[in-house]
Design a protein that fits this description.
Elements: H1 10-17, H2 29-50
């Protein structure tokens, strides 16, 4: 799996970390970011499909 490095405002990272842990929604910060990216891509695909711009690259 490729690794990605990015700069992120501290406020966002602090907010993400509030959702990470044993009794929280995500097991790690990386898991939270991957999940957010997947959700964003699904939303963008849905928008593109509604506007007739969806191209299935699979």
């Amino acid at each position: 799996m490729p690794k990605v490095s990015l700069d992120m405002p501290n406020e966002i990272l602090v907010d993400i970390k509030r959702h990470v842990g044993d009794d929280r929604k995500f097991v790690s910060v990386a898991d939270a970011i991957r999940t957010a990216c997947r959700k964003l891509l699904d939303q963008l695909d849905s928008i593109d499909e509604r506007h007739g711009r969806f191209e299935n690259d699979n």
